[in-house]
Fold each of these.
Amino acid sequence: MADATVTANDAGFAELIGNDTPVLVDFWAEWCGPCKMMEGPLNELAGEKAGSLTVAKLNVDDNPQTAMTYEVMSIPTMILFKGGQEQKRFVGARSKGQLETELADYVG
């Protein structure tokens, strides 16, 4: 399966999350084992929810400013944004089913 997630960075972050479509941002790093475990579930979710949810990945090592702005202290941290505002935050690895349950109120 091709990667359905988008890559986020410090420069375009405000534009990315300013959408009316919910955006789930995965704050991750290459060296983080639990972050690697999230790749499959997030990619599946991105493919299945295309059009109603954008899934973005932001490497905290390459983009420290955004991680500091949103006070990301542990990774993986996933933050759901809508219209530029934080709606929900998850810290730690989750299964695809857990993610779907936690996002159900925000994503159709």
Amino acid sequence: MGYLGKGEAEAIILSKEKKADLILIDEKKARKAARRAGFEVVGVLGLLLAAKNKALIPAIKPFIEELSKQGFRLSKKVTERALKEAGE
């Protein structure tokens, strides 16, 4: 896992130690590494979609906009797909 950032590598290691099935991770290389390690992977947009589907939040778009304002980088393609899936 030498090509991963320290945070991503630690998240995968901790998840292995805790015998987790699912890991929340967004960085593309880290997602790939987590899948190779046997984890189901979800990113922040997947988490937002799940929250909307469970009626915990009314919409995902305001959260995406706030994440963007805070410097969180999301690909336009992935964002558009998530908004479409959310019906927004």
Amino acid sequence: MALPHEDLHDKIAPSILSADFARLGDEVRAVEKAGADMIHFDVMDGHFVPNLSIGIPVMESVRKVTKLPLDAHLMISEPARYIEAFVKAGANSISVHCEVCPDIPAMAKRIHDLGARASIGINPETDADKVLPFAEHLDMILVMSVHPGFGGQEFIPAALDKLRYIRRELDRRGLSIDVEIDGGVKLDNIADVKAAGANVFVSGSGIFGKPDYGKIVGEMRDLIAQTHQP
């Protein structure tokens, strides 16, 4: 029987896209010590999004320095070609975008068969109803609150309405599924996204580059804990 969404654990997921790559291992260890729940790993191919980022060798390196779950966000045009390699490199969950996934149940099954959690991402301009009919196959739905491809963008407020709609529909169907928000999440809006229905909070520049990771993660966690969803 599905748990009510209130029983889903809140999770803070620093996005290493905003970390100092010259000292990436130290950065990952620092956010783990600060109390992060998982590491968000953005993969860009220069095709699905207009930028390139990190790939499998970097994930293998990150896996060696942390025990935290690694959340691989594949912003790429042909995700099916790389899912197995990312799981083997250490990914605990795989997010594939619905815009390049014509068969969501089949994609979720493949990810599950490889031993990872299955997630589907939704770009700001994409309707949530493209994913919700297949929600029972998923462990998580990822809502983009910026246009994917670049770190440091401002949060798109319309994402809050999408979060509310998704959480309401999941609750209506009795589905206990993580809802992840990714893009522009910082201290000044993390309570709003929690209230709207998210329980997994990706933050890049909102954490990395700050003088005290423990302080910022602790403040985020306090704001989340003080905020209740309807």
Amino acid sequence: MTPRKKAWASEIKAILDTYFPNPEIPLLHTSPYTLLIAVLLSAQATDKKVNQTTPTLFALADTPEKMVKIPVSKLEEILRPVGLFRTKAKAILGLSQRLLDDFSGEVPEDLALLETLPGVGHKTASVVMAQAFQVPTFPVDTHIKRCANRWELSSGKTPEQVEHDLKKLFPVSSWLKVHLQIIYFARAYCPALRHNRAACPICSKL
């Protein structure tokens, strides 16, 4: 990474700190397990829709032990509003059983082990590691990828490539915060559609 790009990343971080100094985790949860389920449900669904759905789900089952007792038809009914409900219901039941069988019902504090759970990919595992266990990771979703490309921080075509580039540009100590800051900033000022480049506090500086 060039000194110029590092300096630009530092300028972006300062802007993010100004607009979103204390970003909160957008998904409602009470434990590593409920966070894992919420993140899984957020695939191709808005955080708002997930947060409208999970209170009903977690009132019935907020542990793997309770979750595996819910009939799949009931689980699908609850999850229908978030989309891909059949696939997500199957994954939730599968990972819950796996947690009981292999991890004493606890969510493993290990990225590689999380990625072996049904329905859990790298991004989901990274979010859980970051937000449940405070382990420095830099999960890349569509918002972060879009902004990283727009802001000329990365030309990566995949989330993995973008993650690799961003980890080089921002201090490890800032990863958890910057990850959330970019998501909030992207939604408010740097959306995918109808983006006003001149009005964007970051894009306007390019």
